[in-house]
């Protein structure tokens, strides 16, 4: 970015808002995408391993966000919103011609309303801090992504995130009450007012999942729940993934809603639940919570349905152990040092599709040279279908091939999913990693419509250029 432009922005907002020091630029030049970290891990000493933003603008309030957006719009400069950097699909990727808009200073809990079960947060508020703020009132957001301690409330909305308790409490779109945002021309909108509305199309969805391409989310109001009265755990063995899927279908379609329903194939059971592994059996774990009477009824019904589907009971300690350690994952660099690159790919399908999707994706991944693991688990359940997390780890003979093998794994998994009619993006967003595959979910007409919406909202194409749109 031209130094004169940076000087103008700094003069308008102050040196404490507009930053250009190498440390700040470096830590905000990418998100948690594995390849971004690999490139930096492999970079020669003294090199960054990737492009840096032209500058970082760190606004402290709504007016300063508007000022940055208007500055960028007036000069045709790209603007890349940044929450806390926990995204995994390259939604943030450094560009020296772009201003990175760091929302991390706007991190306040604005209000908690225990009567109407609403809480308002600035977009940069840490997810765990938000949950702890409402927990002090005996409430919960009910949104528990694995990244809760390192992600932002605005980021949840921007990527259409799901949490680990989504089967009962819903995904982020089910929890959002209203969104405040700055549009690409600098104007402010507040979308959402009442518990439910029929005032035309739901404009909140222009920002949900837009990943910074349609505007800047500045404030979010979420609809809360009261803390559950009681909690219980169950676990079951299934002979095959399909048998476990069928049990889950019967449970959810009988209108029982354990907030956590997760099913692991045999390789993942051995890796994550070694003390509970039983031959080639798959493991289904469930958390049940809510009013004591409902939990008791649900436990009895779930056990009966599982038995009817041919499952056998496992030690509920497996579920308790998962709950205690669910957010502990290895750092990318720990794997890179072993010559391994890995990731998870979350896809979904109807109940009729999910078995074939699972088999086809696993077969496709196992054909990749150097693959050392291809496994999967399900984690989000719906009346009409379910998702699966496909996990791969690859250790090519030539370490220089790590990035190519990584991209091959992604390509094989997404194409295999699409070939069986499944959805290629469940909840991590699309970013730059998935954008070439969006036609599978949206079709040519949907892609054209998305472009029209983008052009109408952002005619100068300043918002996160290069992201999301194929």
Draw up the topology in text.
Layout (H helix, E strand, L loop, with lengths): L2 H11 L4 E2 L2 H6 L6 H9 L12 E3 L4 H14 L2 E5 L15 E5 L6 E5 L4 E5 L4 H9 L3 E2 L12 H6 L7 H4 L2 H4 E7 L5 E4 L24 E8 L1 E2 L3 E9 L2 H13 L6 E5 L1 H7 L9 E9 L1 H17 L3 E2 L3 H9 L6 H5 L4 E10 H15 L5 E8 L2 E2 L2 E10 L7 H18 L19 H19 L13
Parallel strand pairs: 2-4, 3-4
Antiparallel strand pairs: 1-2, 5-6, 6-10, 7-11, 8-9, 8-10, 12-14, 12-15, 13-14, 13-17, 16-19, 17-19, 18-19
Please characterize this protein's 3D structure:
- The protein is α+β, with helices and mostly antiparallel strands.
- It has four domains: 3-105, Uridine Diphospho-n-acetylenolpyruvylglucosamine Reductase, domain 2, CATH 3.30.43; 109-226, Uridine Diphospho-n-acetylenolpyruvylglucosamine Reductase, domain 3; 230-325, Alpha-Beta Plaits; 332-437, GMP Synthetase, Chain A, domain 3 (2-Layer Sandwich), CATH 3.30.300.
- Helices cover 35% and strands 22% of the residues.
- Strands 12, 13, 14, 15, 16, 17, 18 and 19 form an eight-stranded antiparallel sheet that branches. Strands 5-6-10-8-9 form a five-stranded antiparallel sheet.
- The relative contact order is 0.12.
